[in-house]
Amino acid sequence: MEIELGAGTVEYTDTGGPGPVLVFVHGLLMDGTLWDDTVASLAGHRCVVPTLPLGAHRHPMRPDADLSLPGIAALLTEFLERLDLREVTLVGVDTGGALVQLVMADGDSRVNRVVLASCDAFDNFPPGLTGKTLFLTGKLSPGLFGLFMQQLRLRAIRRLPIAFGWLTKRGDAVSAGWLRPLLSQAGIRRDAVRMLRAFAATPRILREVADRLPAFDRPALVIWASEDRVMPPEHGRRLAALLPKGKLVEVADSYTLLPLDQQAEFARLVREFTAG
Fold first, then answer.
1. What is the pTM of this model?
2. What is the pLDDT of residue 17?
3. Which of 162, 191, 234, 265 shows a CA-CA span of 20 to 30 A to 273?
4. CATH number, domain with residue 42
5. Within a domain: residue 262?
């Protein structure tokens, strides 16, 4: 499905149904397929999964679209409003978790609960070697950026710590698919460079957002990979401690992308949280 929003066309999937509404937010250079197995495990829930303009989207955004972190968070809020989604559980991982934090800080009344899975937080922006490398490539022209990213066609390059190697242990086949729009469409490359430059211009933004998170008084589940090499486990503990109704669960044998590395356990935790 597609919806026209202020920034452009956004693709999404929606399982429908009357059950609890969950909206899943992916990270940088990822699309909604990150959540396919999680959604399949959550029968009885209404699972809504947008593909946001984070570099793996398939429709270029309008030339005047705000692709900063606050701009994409506002796009996510507009998405919730246009679909009239209420009492939402917002689930985010990686940069998707940063977007969820911005929505939390703004106090959106449509959001009833949140799940923050291993994600950018505090001063970890850009996060780890992966994020720092991407922010540096954002200084290139879109054409040169595309040439640099062509290297990621090779599995050996994708598995490096500067790429997806420290983000997922088991999800290489899925991550390879995320690169196709970027490698094939000049408009997506232009969006990605604009986005990365806008992100790099606000290095303190998540520290400022963290100061506002204690005002979020709704249930919050923080799920963190105990072996995470990109998102420090200490940040998961700090986030859970900041939130009045925060709860922390650490998951073993996973890197950042828990929905790929520990899909069954991740889905179980989300199911129990929404039931509670």
1. 0.98
2. 85
3. 234
4. 3.40.50.1820
5. yes
Q: Which of 124, 64, 72 is nearest to 100 (CA)?
A: 72
Does 91 fall in a domain? yes
Sorted by sequence, the CB contacts under 8 Å of residue 92 that are 6+ apart come out as 24, 25, 98, 99, 100, 101, 114, 115, 116, 117, 119
* SS3 label, residue 100: helix
For 14, 65, 111, the CA distances from 74, given in Å and listed in that order, are: 20, 11, 14
| Cα gap 131→204, rounded to integer Å | 15
9 part of a folded domain: yes
The counts of H helices and E strands in the chain are 13, 8
Q: Please count the CA atoms within 13 angstroms of the CA of 250 that sit on its side-chain side.
A: 13
Count how many domains the chain has: 1
CA distance 263 to 86: 26
Of 273, 259, 270, 264, give the one whose Cα is nearest residue 36. 259
**What amino acid occupies position 231?**
M
Q: In terms of residue numbers, what domain contains 41?
A: 2-124+203-275
59 within a domain of the structure (yes/no)? yes
127 burial level (CB within 10 Å; 0-12, 13-18, 19+): buried
Rounded to the nearest 10 degrees, the angle between the axes of helix 142-149 and helix 128-137 is 140
* Of 6-10, 16-20, 252-256, minimum mean pLDDT range: 16-20
**271 CA to centre of own chain:** 19
